[in-house]
Design a protein that fits this description.
With 167 residues, the chain is α+β, with helices and mostly antiparallel strands. The chain has five helices and eight strands, in the order βαααββαβββαββ. It has one domain: Hotdog Thioesterase (Thiol Ester Dehydrase, Chain A).
Length: 167
């Protein structure tokens, strides 16, 4: 079995996600609710990803804060984009699936919330392991939500299952 890991494919994916119009097209086709909600990738490299969710009518709850589900969507995206980037160009392909989600809310989110995941190295290692062994691997990713002033409002732990597909 020929196993390959195309670095150029990963770089192309990161460039597409950082592009405003290419990312909006991706959301329109794959995650339309994220497009309508106004989620944006603010930063992305092989080590971390930051996604923001705005405080607007569509994302708020009756208590005038960002709804927990909107926060969960942005937190999951900050981890998922890192996973998607890590599996780009893998041959055979690698599948990914959320298998667990935990959330802790510490403050009321009354403005745009920025979710940052810094588990890129762990995700890359998990992809390498599943590519070598063919076994499923899980990786826990933490995404911390902060307001623009740095106040932490929530923390999500998203557990991803990664597995090399059969050739």
């Amino acid at each position: 079995m020929d196993i390959s890991n195309d670095i150029e494919a990963k770089n192309r994916f990161r460039k597409q996600v950082k592009g405003l119009w290419t990312f909006r097209l991706f959301l329109l086709l794959k995650l339309p609710i994220a497009l309508v909600s106004g989620l944006r990738v603010r930063a992305l490299d092989e080590h971390h990803c930051t996604v923001s969710v705005p405080f607007k009518r569509l994302t708020q709850n009756p208590f005038r804060s960002v709804y927990f589900a909107s926060q969960a969507m942005a937190a999951e995206m900050s981890t998922g984009v890192l996973c998607l980037a890590a599996i780009q160009g893998c041959r055979p392909a690698v599948s990914m699936l959320v298998v667990n989600l935990q959330a802790i809310f510490t403050k009321k989110a009354t403005g745009r919330v920025f979710f940052t995941c810094e588990n890129g190295d762990e995700i890359t290692a998990a992809v390498a392991t599943t590519m070598q062994t063919g076994d499923g691997v899980t990786v826990k990713c933490t995404s911390v939500g902060r307001l623009a002033d740095g106040t932490e409002v929530s923390k999500f732990i998203v557990e991803w299952s990664l597995k090399r597909k059969s050739a």
